[in-house]
């Protein structure tokens, strides 16, 4: 009788998608709910710690530069997620911290710096959910009459990620020497200037943030 080769083990990753008082539009009306939870950092810190105790891999915040939903029916305001993640990082130890950010209404240098900072603050736990943001309301919030065409948004997104990766990779891992005896903090030769010129972005800069702690992927 031929022996059977055991199937390779598969791993399941669990993520908590957090939304102020909950996903149901009437969740804020429950007796135990705090209708102001969406603007309370302590609320999200508690949720993150609960998810971490439950062995979940990550928490996730959706985001959009548009006021969400009907203000008369459900909590509509929200905190900027990358800022919120830095506060959650200090209240947790292991869980991954993922935020949504748009490539249509940000610039690569600023956004790459923000995520690199979250990654350092959290000890290498930051994640980016890349979106291109559709809808004329978002465009008007940034002084644009209408959203860019679908193909243009995704072409910009691909180039945006390319530039962000170049910025993250521009610091070599051993660029910081911290040599007190010789008075040499860093090696400038190991922090290269990126030279990118594409359809949507031109960047000839050096990143102000050291590379994310665990690299990018």
What is the secondary structure topology, with strand pairs?
Layout: E1 15-17, H1 41-53, E2 58-61, H2 81-89, E3 96-102, H3 108-122, E4 126-131, H4 136-141, H5 150-168, E5 176-179, E6 184-186, E7 194-197, E8 202-205
Parallel strand pairs: 1-2, 2-3, 3-4
Antiparallel strand pairs: 5-6, 7-8
Helix pairs in contact: 1-2, 2-3, 3-5
Label this structure with key terms.
29% helix; 5 helices; TIM Barrel; globular; alpha/beta; 217 residues; two-stranded antiparallel sheet
In what order do the strands lie side by side in the largest sheet? Answer: 1-2-3-4
Which descriptor suits the 3D outline?
globular
Span of the ends, CA to CA: 44 Å
Q: Hey, roughly how much beta strand do the residues contain?
A: 15-25%
Number of domains: 1
Structural class: alpha/beta
- Listing every helix as H and every strand as E from the N terminus to the C terminus, the arrangement reads EHEHEHEHHEEEE
Q: Please count the helical segments.
A: 5
CATH architecture: Alpha-Beta Barrel
The percent range for helix content is 25-40%
- CATH superfamily caption: Luciferase-like domain
CATH class annotation: Alpha Beta
Mean pLDDT: 92
The tally of beta strands, per DSSP, is 8
Low-confidence stretches: none
């Amino acid at each position: 009788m031929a022996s059977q080769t055991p199937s390779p083990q598969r791993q399941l990753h669990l993520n908590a998608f957090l939304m102020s008082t909950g996903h149901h539009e009437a969740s804020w009306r429950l007796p135990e709910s705090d209708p102001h939870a969406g603007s309370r950092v302590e609320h999200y810190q508690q949720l993150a710690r609960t998810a971490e105790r439950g062995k979940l891999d990550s928490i996730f915040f959706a985001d959009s530069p548009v006021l969400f939903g009907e203000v008369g029916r459900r909590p509509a305001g929200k905190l900027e997620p990358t800022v919120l993640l830095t506060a959650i990082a200090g209240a947790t130890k292991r869980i991954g911290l993922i935020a949504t950010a748009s490539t249509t209404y940000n610039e690569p240098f600023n956004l790459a710096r923000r995520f690199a900072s979250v990654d350092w603050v959290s000890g290498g736990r930051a994640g980016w959910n890349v979106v291109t943001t559709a809808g004329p309301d978002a465009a008007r919030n940034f002084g644009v009459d209408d959203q860019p065409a679908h193909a243009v948004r995704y072409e910009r997104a691909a180039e945006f990620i390319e530039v962000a990766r170049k910025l993250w990779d521009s610091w070599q891992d051993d660029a910081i020497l911290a040599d007190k005896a010789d008075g040499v903090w860093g090696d400038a030769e190991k922090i290269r200037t990126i030279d990118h010129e594409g359809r949507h972005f031109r960047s000839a800069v050096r990143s102000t943030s050291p590379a994310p702690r665990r690299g990018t992927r």
